[in-house]
Design a protein that fits this description.
By secondary structure, chain A is α+β, with helices and mostly antiparallel strands. Chain A contains 7 helices and 4 strands. Chain A has a 4-stranded antiparallel sheet, with helices on both faces. The chains are: A alpha+beta, B alpha+beta. At the A-B interface, α2, α3 and α5 of A face α1 and β9 of B.
């Protein structure tokens, strides 16, 4: 008991200092490794669904609603998605010219029509290596929009996704579309 | 007697060296994040400015239904827009790079949208208003802001709209 009491009177020893230092370094490195990827994600999200891209998606929606044939919407209802970047698909109301002008002026590189819920499209992009990394990352970031039971394809709800180039980088936007 | 001592000089020295090493190693990291914070502050102000301007102009272009673009100046700094919804009305836009102002609104109700008061932030003379004769015509407004902290020194945004788009 006497010996134990003597040890308790010890001050701050080197081993204790090292243990505390290692512990603190461990906490800092843990914080750093968790914090660093967040900054990378933030850098990517800056190019997603901005005011600019939402208005571009809006005009893509207007042209798609006016120009796409009903068969395109049937395909989307069956498959879950359709690449509508090709302006020859816009067969109604002379929307072909509107599509060409829209793509040229806004530097649009991709337009996709999907069901309101993006679940099928997300799975397709995830399993396909043909898409660029930035496009795959955006689709992965998108919510599935699958909780809204009212906004279904049967009720006429779809989604438009656009990719365009601005400020030398790819930007993305999406907007829901209602085909009444 | 020695065991009853608190912190010895050697222990204090070791502790001091370790803490100093940690502080020095973190100094650059903190400095880096401080710079990034300042850059993001500037970005946030510029993005707020651009969002506000886009909302105001796009609201007219989409809701008012743009039917004509006229008086586009040779330097591409000013133009007049005509809308037909709910009734006919016109708005004018003027880009003033030297003053850092974009003026927009209906006649007699024009508002000056001044770029944020950030040192070295400039409204680029390359900003422009274009009427593109594609399809029925397309309005393309490109606003470019310059600042040394931006990637490639520039931040730009577009306000584009088809003219007389038939719904």
């Amino acid at each position: 008991m006497k010996r134990k009491k003597m040890l308790s009177n010890n001050g701050f020893i080197l081993v204790e200092t090292l243990v505390v230092s290692v512990f603190i370094m461990g906490i800092f490195s843990l914080l750093y490794t968790n914090f660093f990827p967040l900054i990378g994600e933030y850098e990517r999200y800056k190019n997603y669904d901005t005011v600019e891209s939402t208005y571009i998606a809006h005009w893509a929606r207007m042209i798609a609603l006016k120009g796409l044939a009903d068969s395109s919407y049937t395909t989307v209802a069956n498959v879950g998605y359709l690449d509508i970047s090709d302006c020859s698909l816009y067969v109604n109301s002379n929307a072909n010219g509107s599509c060409e002008a829209f793509k040229t002026v806004n530097n649009v590189s991709k337009i996709y029509l999907t069901t309101y819920s993006t679940t099928s499209f997300k799975d397709f992009v995830k399993d396909n290596n043909d898409f660029s990394r930035s496009f795959s990352e955006y689709i992965s970031y998108l919510p599935a929009y699958s909780k809204n039971a009212v906004k279904t394809t049967e009720a006429g709800y779809y989604r438009i996704i656009v990719e365009y180039i601005s400020n030398n980088s790819y930007k993305y936007g999406n907007i829901e579309a209602f085909k009444g | 007697m020695l065991n009853k001592k608190g912190i010895t000089s050697v222990e204090l020295l070791v502790c001091f060296i370790i803490v100093s090493a940690i502080i020095v190693s973190m100094y650059n990291l903190i400095l880096n994040y401080r710079n990034r914070e300042q850059i993001e502050e500037i970005n946030n102000e510029v993005i707020s400015f651009s969002n506000n301007l886009q909302e105001v102009i796009q609201n007219d272009l989409v809701m008012g239904h743009l039917v004509n673009v006229s008086n586009v100046s040779e330097d591409g700094y000013s133009a007049t827009f005509t809308f037909d919804n709910p009734d006919n009305y016109t708005t004018t836009i003027t880009i003033k790079p030297n003053e850092g102002i974009i003026s927009y609104g209906k006649s007699g109700d024009i508002i000056d949208y001044e770029i944020p008061g950030i040192a070295d932030l400039m409204l680029s003379p390359d900003s422009s208003i274009e009427y593109i004769p594609a399809d029925n015509g397309y309005l393309k407004i490109t606003i470019i802001l310059t600042h040394p902290n931006f990637e490639d020194n520039t931040y730009s945004f577009m306000i584009n709209c088809p003219v007389n788009y038939v719904y």
